[in-house]
């Protein structure tokens, strides 16, 4: 396997684990109805994070498959992955 495919695979696995972990946190929120008032401000940022990392995981998977199968559109997929990583950095970089 080529080194770029390994790096993209690491990014893909990390994005998938973040998306699943955040989604399961949302499921835990559903089982805490008595804490609804305390958790209400967290729902918006949680949904934003789940969406961002789900899209990042999907783009990373497309980039990984394009790299492994040597598709002609792989450079476009890599550019999309870089754009999504930039978006994640933009959203979560400390201000």
What does this structure look like?
This protein has helices at 3-30, 36-68, 74-92. By secondary structure, the protein is mainly alpha-helical. It starts with a helix and ends with a helix.
Q: Kindly state the mean pLDDT as a whole number?
A: 96
Structural class, by secondary structure, is mainly alpha
Helix content: over 70%
Order of helices and strands: HHH
Radius of gyration: 16 Å
Counted beta strands: 0
The amount of beta strand, in percent, is under 5%
Distance N to C terminus: 38 Å
- Uncertain spans, ≥5 residues at pLDDT below 50? none
Shape: elongated
Number of helices: 3
Describe the structure concisely for a colleague.
The chain is mainly α and 95 residues long.
Describe the secondary-structure layout.
Blueprint: H1 3-30, H2 36-68, H3 74-92
Features:
mainly alpha, 3 helices, 95 residues
């Amino acid at each position: 396997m080529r080194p770029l495919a390994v790096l993209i695979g690491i990014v893909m696995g990390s994005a998938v684990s973040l998306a699943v972990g955040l989604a399961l946190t949302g499921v835990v929120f559903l089982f805490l109805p008595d804490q609804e008032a305390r958790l209400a401000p967290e729902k918006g940022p949680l949904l934003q994070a789940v969406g961002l990392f789900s899209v990042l995981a999907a783009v990373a998977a497309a980039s990984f498959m394009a790299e492994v199968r040597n598709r002609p559109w792989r450079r476009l997929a890599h550019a999309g992955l870089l754009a999504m990583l930039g978006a994640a950095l933009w959203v979560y970089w400390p201000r």
